[in-house]
């Protein structure tokens, strides 16, 4: 294993922006993993920007708008230093319940209007539906965002958790910058059918869940309010089985004198120059550890060794609950 400084920007596809090789995912700053500290969240965003991170990822439904307002406060005097990736379309109730998805053209423009206000900006750098709306042809959704691109409110169009057919149909309407999809040592299914299409079409990847929501770093659920308590990989016997894989990763990382988190992120970084891992750091200490992955260079033989030691087929439980898995276009 070599050590190097991988701070060269990565291009998000043929038509997307150039960004720092890691992006900051801000979802966890709005209660998805339990209580969060606003002061520390803003300090973490500032530290990320100071360290060179350019892309911040959020969703208008994270904390029912809280996450966008938080980012807006953090960027009040430094908007020109950050690019914003925003997901839309997920519906939430006052009790935080899920209400499905809405990607109708009128809804798209309505969602954007509110996001611009909450974020305090005049444009979004990458705008994407959070999921495929089964009631709305993807051509209509992308066409509506394309209108917003022409009007100057959006710079690039992305997608999230969609499969090959949807990718092709969307890209035919307007160039897609990147696909946001879960990808990690224990979630490798995109390699089979999705990544080849992305390569063919010139579409980049913003990979979330690179630590499988903290599973690969040894993180445990925090109790009430932590949505991971409902995820199969963190439940009962599945968690016990998965812990053996985590222990293997920790052992390999220890031999290389890095942390398990850093090795897991470095693995994703090494899988392709068009892939940008989205790190979900909620604290400056987590951010600093994740940035350490940029100093790790893994050879092809090292990648194979790591993958053989942690077979994806040995992972217990799906990445989402059964009902959510059925709704993912990327899993069809």
TrEMBL record:
One of its GO terms (molecular function) is oxidoreductase activity. One of its GO terms (cellular component) is cytoplasm. It comes from the Bacteria. Residues 21-309 form the NADP-dependent oxidoreductase domain. Keywords: Oxidoreductase. InterPro entries: Aldo-Keto_reductase, NAD(P)_OxRdtase_dom_sf, NADP_OxRdtase_dom. The keyword Oxidoreductase applies. PANTHER family: AFLATOXIN B1 ALDEHYDE REDUCTASE, ALDO-KETO REDUCTASE YAKC [NADP(+)]. This is Aldo/keto reductase. It comes from Stigmatella aurantiaca (strain DW4/3-1).
């Amino acid at each position: 294993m070599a050590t190097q400084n991988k701070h060269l920007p990565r291009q998000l596809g043929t038509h997307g922006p150039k960004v720092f090789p890691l992006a900051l995912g801000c979802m966890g700053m709005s209660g998805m993993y339990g209580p969060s500290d606003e002061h520390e969240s803003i300090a973490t965003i500032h530290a990320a920007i100071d360290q060179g991170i350019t892309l911040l990822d959020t969703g208008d439904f994270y904390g029912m708008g809280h996450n966008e307002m938080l980012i807006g406060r953090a960027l009040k005097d430094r908007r020109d230093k950050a690019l914003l990736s925003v997901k839309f379309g997920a519906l939430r109730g006052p009790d935080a319940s899920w209400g499905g998805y809405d990607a109708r053209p009128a809804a798209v423009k309505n969602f954007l209007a509110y996001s611009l206000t909450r974020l305090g900006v005049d444009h979004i750098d990458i705008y994407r539906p959070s999921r495929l709306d089964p009631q709305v042809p993807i051509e209509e959704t992308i066409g509506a965002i394309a209108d917003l691109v022409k009007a100057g409110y959006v710079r690039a169009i992305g997608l999230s958790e969609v499969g090959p057919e949807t990718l092709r149909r969307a890209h035919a309407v307007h160039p897609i910058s990147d696909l946001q999809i879960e990808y990690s040592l224990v979630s490798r299914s995109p390699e089979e059918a999705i990544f080849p299409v992305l390569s063919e079409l010139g579409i980049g990847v913003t990979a979330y869940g690179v630590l499988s929501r903290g599973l690969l770093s040894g993180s445990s659920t925090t109790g009430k309010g932590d949505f991971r308590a409902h995820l199969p990989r963190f439940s009962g016997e599945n968690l016990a089985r998965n812990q053996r894989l985590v222990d293997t990763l920790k052992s390999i990382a220890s031999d290389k004198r890095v942390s398990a988190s850093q090795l897991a992120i470095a693995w994703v970084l090494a899988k392709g120059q068009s892939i940008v891992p989205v790190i979900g750091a909620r604290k400056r200490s987590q951010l600093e550890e994740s940035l350490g992955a940029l100093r790790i260079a893994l050879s092809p033989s090292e990648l194979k060794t790591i993958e053989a030691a942690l077979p994806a087929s040995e992972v217990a439980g799906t990445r989402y609950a059964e009902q959510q898995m059925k709704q993912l276009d990327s899993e069809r």
